[in-house]
Amino acid sequence: MLTSLQVKNYRNLKDFKLDSLVQVNLITGKNNTGKTSLLEAVAIYASKGSFSFVVELLRSHGEYFRIEDDNASHLIALNMEALSSLFSDWKIGFEINNTISIVGIDKEATIEIPDNSNFVEIKFVKYDENIDSDTENAGVVNKRLVISDYDENNMDDYKTGLYISTGDRNQLIVLERNIFFPRLIGKVLNSNKFEFIKTNSIDRDNNAVLFDNIALTDKEKFIIDALKIIEPSTERIAFVGKGSRDRSAVIKLSKRNEVLPLRNMGDGINRILTIILALVNCENGFLLIDEFENGLHYTVQKQLWSVIFKLAKRLNIQVFATTHSEDCISSFEQVLSENKKTVKGKLIRLDNVNGVIKQTEFSPQELKIANEQNIELR
User: Fold this and answer.
1) What is the per-residue DSSP string for 310-361?
2) FRET pair for 125, CA 20 to 30 Å: which of 246, 315, 355, 360?
């Protein structure tokens, strides 16, 4: 579990640090204060800098799309333009201060983690290619060397790439080819366990995969219990359809003989299914929820927070969620007060002060007082 996180040069988080993260962290703030950027930074850290996941983030923002162009110089320019959106001020630079840096610290870890495995760095670099001159393999690139010390006057002599480092694993992304990756289903390979639920996200294909992972296990009961928040007569659910794609959820109610399509029962129950499926699939990992309250009536939010607190503790999951809703903050505070002896939670408010993102953290007691006195915290 992360107890501290430092983010530099990622989107509008130019130099941002949180020093006392806990098990359940609720993040609030006005628009353009870096709430989603913070979730994305945690996800990149959890993915161990997976470039496939980075491309997925770009696609979800509409910042990257498949390029139908075979011209290498065009591809480099278009890829650099897309990737520059990850960097603060959309800046393309090769200096060390233009590096995206995400550093996580776990002061409560029971296993010692090497210092070189708790960070992700992303930067543009110049590199040189060693071309094989052997007759049999003539023209084949057999080695790429990142150039750390070069003269600005001869930058054109080298190629431009994206370099991702996690200390124990480095990757050079060649930009003169299409960097498109197919849409990911399920977890990113070689990553920590994590699930990222984006705003208004109900990914039925991914939900089907997540359900398959826990079907016929004790975790299936957690799903049924959560759906009972909306529909108390829920007995079972399943995913039906032909093949591995385009499967949809159906629900069996105790008061009905037939099964019903879950999508016909409203956004609330589908949102809860998405959240709890994600939660039970990231044991010993991270759950990230953007705009927690979306699709949820304020009357069910306290019950859902109760389930999240209980399962986060039981499955050792660290939760990061964002919100714009005072009802969400209020229900979070009520559940936190009821569980403060077993699960640690806190509210973090982000503010954009002249382009610099600053945080204010509220202890459970401060949050309780603010809630009781109707003090605005969003």
Assistant:
1) HHHHHHT-EEEEEE--HHHHHHHHHHHHHHTTT--EEEEEEEEETTEEEEEE
2) 355
Tokens of 81: 């333009």
Q: Is 153 exposed, middle or buried (0-12, 13-18, 19+ CB in 10 A)?
A: exposed
What is the Cα–Cα distance from 193 to 284, expressed in whole angstroms? 7
Contact 378, 326 (CB under 8 A): yes
Q: Where are the alpha helices (DSSP H) in the chain?
A: 35-46, 51-60, 72-84, 204-214, 219-227, 267-280, 298-315, 326-339, 364-372
Long-range contacts of 357-365 (CB under 8 A, 24+ apart): 357/12, 357/13, 357/14, 357/16, 357/33, 357/34, 359/16, 359/18, 361/18, 361/20, 364/333, 364/336, 364/337, 364/340
Task: Give CA torsion, residues 46, 49, 51, 55, to 10 deg.
Answer: 60
Residues 225, 243: Cα–Cα separation, whole Å? 28
Residue-wise pLDDT tens digits, 289-326: 999 999 999 999 999 999 999 999 999 999 999 999 99
The H-or-E segment that residue 146 falls in is: strand 141-147
- Distance in angstroms (rounded) separating the CA atoms of residues 30 and 28: 7
Angle, in degrees to the nearest 10, between helices 298-315 and 219-227 = 170
- pTM for the model: 0.90
CA distance 301 to 312: 16
Cα separation, 63 vs 58, whole angstroms = 5
Is 377 within 8 Å of 359 (Cβ atoms)?
A: no
State residue 364 phi and psi, 5-degree precision: -55, -40
Per-residue model confidence as pLDDT tens digits over 106-154: 876 543 444 456 899 999 998 888 765 554 544 445 578 888 776 666 7
Mark residue 297 as left, alpha or beta (left: phi above 0; alpha: psi -120 to 50; beta: remaining).
Answer: beta
SS3 140: coil
Residue 151 burial (CB < 10 Å; 0-12/13-18/19+)?
exposed
CA angle at residue 118 from 276 to 322, to 5 degrees? 35
